[in-house]
Fold each of these.
Amino acid sequence: KVGRTIGDGNFAIEHMIQNEVSILRRVKHPNIVLLIEEMDMPTELYLVMELVKGGDLFDAITSTNKYTERDASGMLYNLASAIKYLHSLNIVHRDIKPENLLVYEHQDGSKSLKLGDFGLATIVDGPLYTVCGTPTYVAPEIIAETGYGLKVDIWAAGVITYILLCGFPPFRGSGEDQEVLFDQILMGQVDFPSPYWDNVSDSAKELITMMLQVDIEQRFSALQVLEHPWVNDDGLPENEHQLSVAGKIKKHFNTGPKPNSTAAGVSVIATTALDKERQVFRRRRNPDVRGHFKSQQAPPELNSESEDYSPSSSETVRSPNSPF
């Protein structure tokens, strides 16, 4: 199970809405869904958003006939570009996940990703302690409650990149027991099991390793991600293998056809309960938590500083050698 969004404290619904709108007013980037207009009615707040009708990230992968490392690299290029822009404004998103990455379809047939849902985003002016996010993508420092900052977004992007290349996440709980999942995240041990990673380049594995460092100082920044050879094309394999990840994504994340994949246009902000797993997200003080990375056997369940510019579609940041 991926789990629900979690959070409490000052994350009351009214505060969330006000905070999300204030952040959306500030951000303008080609890889971020644009807030066009807001209408505050007596009982509802209407947000007129940029129309992005290509579905989410998982829709893009599961609906394509051909999918390679170059496609995954282009997706990360888009995501890292959005993160770099946000971090240049000292804004942390805190809920980066595939469902919040929407696919924009250009007239020339190319596609790009746009980051949406800023309900948990906030300004970073010191260590943050509020426990929030989506369990599969949450960074270890959030679970440990030792204070965190911008780089929790890089961790989430690292988890997504891992999924893009194999179809399942690097850290997996057992059923509804999120305690197991959080223990794995705190340890930060990432495996690249055979046969699922046999045809994936070492460059991709090395990048994921650096994005999923438990040590925040060692973890890559958004700029370092963008400068990595796997993202700027220098580290992509010459003979690309088609990645068979769609079936695994459907199985692990229970994805399927959506009645309406259009995300944006006019949206009504509705109340959403936030649930903190109080017993699981307890304060942890384990001095031996470190990141160790190796390739071993497959998981049991699988055996068998930027400009402020207008986000017009013509300016969308995307890799020149990928549909994304």
Note: The mean pLDDT is 78.
Amino acid sequence: MELLVYVLLLTQAVLGNTKLDSCDEECTCISGILKTEKSCTSVEEAFRNFNITPDYVQVAPKDFLEADFGTATVNLGNFIPPLRLVDPKTVSYHKGKKHGYYTLLDIDFDGESNVKVIDLLMNIRDVEKVVPTSGDVIVLFTPPLPALGSGVHRHGKLLYEQKGPIDANQLDLLKLSRYPVIPNLTKFTKTYHLGNPVAGNLYTTELRRCDSSDKCLDKDDSVKQCERLCKILSNCNNDQIDQMQCDAVDK
């Protein structure tokens, strides 16, 4: 928890600093908003194209789930550099039932241990604007930074309509908060009577390399903070920290 607070504070300092545009290239820092053209595929097609359906989610969601980070928008499989994923904003679904209960699941399908949960919220009432503390927080949001060299990771956001309120103090859910891994997503949804997801979205990310090249010759403190944040969240080898940078530039 202390690490998460530190990460969010450091992220706010980095994302909010106007000096990040001081280099001719984006370097290892975050600059501006990542713009992506709206996908022309349907949600169902996107989930099939990325082999999420039927490998993990037997029936793909039909509706589009709006999801935004501080400097990027999720758009059915678009690539988002790791450092743009540390500042979640809102998730929105405009077809939700006024008196309904919903579960929002954010998962890494390519995590080290089966399906890794990035965050899990249950008993959400207002799905017009879901924030990381909406409903009952089962798994607190953790920045979804992939391990260095682990390749491209597919991350999915799934919204389920509950049959009714779910007891968030169940032992299995308390265990999940400490070890956020779901070995079998289908079994999990059946256990809590969630059915098929009503809405969804997905994106990809990858930590490409720790690179000793120095693209910014005159680094100010904001750029150094950005590099430090990347190293912390991506678990770069401690022996590399003094000499190497984590590269998180946009494609």
Note: The chain is about 20% helix and 25% strand.
Amino acid sequence: MSFDELYESCFRNASLVKVPHGKPAKDDASLLVTLDYVMNSSQYVVFFLTAGAKGADLGLKLDNMMKKKNEKGDKDKAQNSPARLRRFFSMKKKKKKDGSINGDSTLMSVVLVDTDYRSNTEDGGSSPQLAQPGWYVYAPQLLATKSRLLRALGFEFPPSLIVVDTASRSVVTTEGRRLLADDAMGTSFPWWPPAAADVLKGDVLKRVNGSVETVDFSTIKTTVRGLLFGAQWCPPCRQWVKQLTPVYEQMKKNGVSLEIVFCSSDRSQEAFDHFVEQMPWSAFTYDPARTLALTRVYNISGIPSLILLDQAGKVITNHGRSSLLEDPAGRYFPWKQRPLYELNEYTVCRLRDEPSLILFTEGSPDDIQFSLSVMDKVSKRLFEERMKVEERRVEEAENKTDENAEPGSGLRNSASSEECSSTGSDLPIPPQADPLQLLYTGEDPICDHILESILGLGDFELPLICIVDGLAGQGGSSGLLFLLRVKIRPRQSAASRVLSLSKHSLATLHHRTP
């Protein structure tokens, strides 16, 4: 779910500690605020997501930009302040409405979040050392809240800078780290990305009957369109092309409605031409500016990357390569989310997408049949429930009136700072706030690696159910945070056990974390 959808029930009253200018007074309660207070006193909030001490240089650059942008904003407000305008036009001051934002708002604020789960302890985490005066530090609280926050922000790896527009509560960009490197003064801040329709067009080199023709992107009418981001100078990109070529050719022979379009990050026209000759699929003509724009639209943080889009240009999956290599026959076309996955080298990347319930077995054919007998019906039932909730969510989003006519055009009405000091929310957590994907293990060695090396459960008797969270692990990227394990026996009602566990809220599971 989006940041906006979860804000009122999950994030509004998240506790933050303001970093003071100078030595603070002992037990200064004014330094403890809520995220809602910060959101309502800023036009943009930059979430600086780090792990331990990662990103010290990035923090200094961010602080320098914030000071310059806020200083400029203060000068602009002074020149165009309501008081100045009233004096000029000899107007009287109007009374402020209760709960409205006053002129003390700033252009941007920074919230520092340590993604290392150890930072939730009193003595854990070193990110506060990176905090600059005037910043806000995410205080230790439920891991469930942090996990939801990281997913809602679209976090991938630390250190990251993610910009949120406070008026719409929408994520402007997840690529703030790269954009700050290119725009240290923040001239184009908040770095709104272009609209997909404005860049997902133009000339495409398409192979037709052995020859190359130039066509417009709009003429590609396949059900699924893949955007492959890469470059000839990148060895993994060259390897991806070799891996995907036979799969793509087989799918085309089988009549699968798929077309891949290469988006080049090559450094020259010559390198682009040489690389494209090795590809059986289409390619946008060489245009670094367009590729850069596409990476911003779809939040591509590195190459190689293959995303799959539907006909409306919406992302089906960011795991395009894994989806195609796992399914060369197109059995799961168009590769939307499935009720149940086998854990292997192609699906392990999904463990970061959502908290996961994994049924570990020895992986023999009999074990796989047992896993399917346990998980199949349960996963389908849960998936149907999930799709119904998703349909209602989409319908509600479409019917929701837009309170802000322009992105970043204003601030929401807010309670006072005293009213924002509440630590709880009366709103129930939406059902889809804590999605849970289901997986079972087979013969792939990655299963043993996860069980033994990452989860440290190699000595436990199998079969075993584990619930893990790939974003709540150390550093938010290097491991899985183990939440719950349950030993099951084939003669027990294993399916009922799985269903019961899947009904746990993520918050309950995080409470049980050692």
Note: The mean pLDDT is 84.
Amino acid sequence: GGISRTVNYQGYRFDIGGHRFFSKVPYVNDLWHEILQDDFILRPRLSRIHYKGHFFDYPLKAMNALAGLGPYEAMMVMLSYLRAKAIPYNGGSEDNFEQWVANRFGYRLYSIFFKTYTEKVWGIPCHEISADWAAQRIKNLSLKRAIYNALVGSAKSMNGEVITTLIEQFHYPRLGPGMMWERCAELLEAQGSPTVFGQPVQQIYHHNGRVTAIKALNRRGEATEITGREFISTMPLRELIFSLSPAPPDKVLQAAHNLRYRDYLTVVLVIDRENVFPDNWIYIHTPEVKLGRIQNYKNWSAAMVPDTSKTALGLEYFLWEQDAEWKWPDERLIETGIRECVQIGLIRPGEVLDGTVVRMKKAYPVYDNYYHRSLAIIRRYLEQFSNLQTIGRNGLHRYNNQDHSMMTGVYAARNIFGETNDVWSVNIEQEYHEESRPESSASGERLVPMRPRDHAPEPQHTFDEIVEEAYAGQVVEELFARLDTLAMGIAVGTVSGLICAIGILLLFYHPANMPELSGLTRETLGLDPDWVKIVIGITGASGAGFLLGSSMSLVRNCLIKFYLGFTRKRVEASQTQAL
């Protein structure tokens, strides 16, 4: 179900978006291997960016980027990056995607490699997209780290963690991701737990803080009422709230209405060619086409096509359900896909043998600038239900990878058996952790906020308190962010050298304005008409600027570290006195 299924068309299998199987969680990896065993194959990753007629390796490789952008554009990218490190955009504020990426990569690179594609995916300007999405999807990656990786081949962050965006290989089910869950359903049925399909939930009945039953429609359109003791939902939160009976308060309904979802459409083309391109997928940043990404399913697994002399391409379009293209007939969408693939030079029109279209509503929860508030209200309301848990990407309105979504399900199942795990704590920003078991609570292990179970609901917080709680950690992190000493030194050194060079040029071209200087002073500043001395003067100014900038950054970081340590000890002391 959902976007984890694999569609079979005339023997050609394809995903609802490509799904890599990669996780740092041993439990998830073990479970995947246990379910599929030899059908869980290891695949190399190759993905590139297509931008205005050029292909760029992804992750970034220095020589490839220089060849594609050209020396001038590459120089401008580096200057833009140094500018961002010396003087962060918007005063260092990172409230939205544009600010977050520009401060880490420079505005120039952001506008080339991030802006167009991101706005294709989400359908809204980057300054209206929350910075949370960038923090989740581009974790630990920066221009400096990408260049370092290109030169020395490392794919680890400063603390030694594998950078998610740079993973070079992954596991994949031989017949696509749907194979994993089809096999899982078979194993469950063999143990007496059949999975029921094709019965959409219409209403969720509740009373006194507990869900009592659900009403679903069977394949014949007849209403069926199902009771139970525990309920776990992966429905989009908006649909879940609207399905509750009795209905929630108006402010909760409005919060659910404010949640937005991006819809997904894939046009699959069968190409009469054995090899079209070697990539697993290609990101289409070229702004002249609406196409966002192309999957080459045979390069994920050769078993995804019935005839290896043919190739199946998945052309991915990101739309709103209200868009005109969403309602276009399949034939028109296929024609559009062929035309755009020909336009960017990937295929020839006469080699397309067949095509089909699959639409998927609510594929991506949207991280706009207001989702935090709506989500806080909904989450607070749902906490009153002691036997209802929401999990997965849409159940949490969080852009999780599939391993994160699986762990929310694992934690929810364990909660039913007496544990108190917070499924909302599972995300890409932190390591997975379980809350301590009841028997270990006396050992001093810290408990994270737990979901209320079978007791009175907590006092309702005000709207301002909810918003303050959601943003407090983010504000502190931005306020005390560590400055990059090397980048600051380079930036100040570059500016100092430029100022010195400009000053020398002005003095040479306006000799009347040149002050009376001693010979030694003139030589030191590089003002004698000797190019060697001029270069020495500019280099000296740059070196002095580098020392000044790096020293200022180092001193600032040390002061912040001292202040944070002092504050932490003071808080700990006050808490000890309170106890």
Note: The longest strand covers residues 352-365.
